[in-house]
Amino acid sequence: MSIKTIIWLTGENVCRKKKLKELNEQENIIDKLAPKGSKRRVVVNICTQVYTHPKQILHYMKPQKIKRVFYYLFHDGIRGVSKVLDDRMLMGSDLKLELVVKKQITGNSIKDYPEIVFKGAENPLVSIIIPVYNQFDYTYACLRSIFENTGDINYEIIIADDCSNDLTKNICEVVKGIHVEKTQGQSYFLRNCNHAAKAAKGKYIVFLNNDTQVQENWLKPLVDLMERDSKIGMAGSCLVYPDGRLQEAGGILWKDGSAWNFGNGHNPAMPEYRYVKDVDYISGAAIMIRHDLWNELGGFDETFAPAYCEDSDLAFSVRKKGYRVVYQPLSVVVHFEGISNGTSVESGIKAYQVENQKKFYEKWEDVLEREHLPNAQDPFLTRDRSQLKKRILVIDHRVPIYDNDAGARTVLMYTKLFLELGMQVTFLPNDFFPFQPYTQELEQMGVEVLYGNYYMEHGKDWLIENGKYFDYVYTNRPHISIEYMDLLKKYSKAKVIYYGHDLHYLREQRQYEIEHNAELLKSSEKWKKIEFELCRKADVVYAVGEYEAAVLKKEFPDKIIRCVPAYIYDTIDTNKMPSIENRRDILFVGGFGHPPNIDAVMWFGKEVFPKILEKCPDMVWYVVGGKVTEEIKSLESDHIKILGYVTDEKLQELYRTCKLVVVPLRYGAGVKGKVVECMYYQAPFITTPTGAEGLGLDENKFAIVEADDMMSDAIVDLYQDDKRLQQIMADCGPYINTHFTRKQAMDVVRADIKI
Q: Among 17, 114, 392, 446, which residue carries the largest CB count within 10 Å?
């Protein structure tokens, strides 16, 4: 993370807190005049939306929408109507999806259209197939959008011309670098696509309707998704109406073969539509499929000719082959629905929709009956096919800003572990703020993240309503967990796993022993009460380090308490050990939002390092960590370099080049991530008993010394002993491989989570 990014995040937080304070004051007044759930509150909401979103309100004034309002009023009462209003409109005020929709150029002659020149490609990665029959204006607009928004992906364009008789016949006069495949006689959509696909050269095939306009960087997210997961066979885009409303975030198929376009009419920027997920099917308006898989399946099943249900059938066939069908929200495509075949199912090609639905049900009856739910039952599950999975809710204070916070890195590691187990993960950050790029990274992994005004106001209501759908809850940190524990136990049957990261009360108790501040003792008692209450109410408690696990087991002998790896790393190849040669200087790593780190650096800088310099006058001490205080900055000198936040790449370089890492902690609790990280990078280190707590380190192998007047001598002796330093480095790899790998973490988790 750059300094610029940190400043931006800080500024965002300050502005956000100020804005939230103002909003809270306004809301307090509104709450008094128009209580939540009251008729007056609904009127206030409507008036607010009329003023702030007049176009959106006009959309909801349509007869069909008004009818739905009365439906909610009848079934859910005034509170239900209020919730729908919030859901549909309030979110639009803080979450937006930027769209660029250009008007179609209409001309009587091919010369009326400006020339478009595609590069073409001898060995394309992607073949974009656009089936067309007349509607040249839309085809041209589609091609123009591809030209402007596709980026540097190597692609070819194949126009599948189904005997058009308009300006499409002359398309090559104004659009260069494309390939046109013409049918011998009108074949209609399905056979036209199958015919054109025979000419495709790409590793991936994209079928794109001509009545679409792709948005910026639409293709790369689809390719990236397929490239990083070989089990994804087909992926589809987020389809949006020209007016900005969502058309489809993947499709749901019910037990009877009927279908839903999930999210139709909603705000496409809402979090439930922004994460990668498995779906029943993807509309054929914009889909990508592996070319070899397409060939293996034989293309669209011509049973469904001329059109309709062929996309659903293809998705089911892809899954039958053992591949996933996935929705990619970062690929946004505007779809002018109904341009090609209209919207009426009473006549024309569209009439085949009803007939082919029957054929589809007959072909896939066994799958539909076995894996799918009755019509409209539990869309919360069916939107991402999680009726077939275990669901887990992860709760923390914010999304994991993993490169600035050791605790956040742990949360991210375990979130990835849950995904690896095949679970559907929802992440609830207590601040409901989409810090980027961290939120989007989670969403691209397949994690639904709850954020925005709606969840900030209704987060706990959402939990009350949807808690029943979760099998497990993994809640972090005592000050966050205490807010949700009672709700979880009352409104969910999920097994609740509590992970405190460390015992806060123990840390503050030890800080008191050093600073003798009575407020710390009071605070310690407060945390003890909270932490013990959480331990009593949780089904399972995770602790880091054998010491804290033993403390909790003594207090709660009948509770399931497991010692878990605080950090999860790949297995280290111990045959490739770094060398101590050419290393120099010492290093400290730790964030300064954590008081023990401030105390350690200030004490070391004032009491220990000056003594070290007397014997090693050329030594430099590098201090790394975010949220640097003015107090820490005051230590800066020719021999003390306060680097603050550094990138992961820079940090790794420091671990490779510094001769010794110092961890001079005088108090704290839990397993210290900075010590574990040293061992992962096989960097020689020296720490205190506090720094080594819970790790079970052999003092004969690792350097553990008291935080006292003798520490400077111990550091100088170790710094000058290359043989000892090399041995410490050699012992790091086996320790990590024994205690902090994915296998150890997985073994613990599998004891509580049954897949």
A: 392
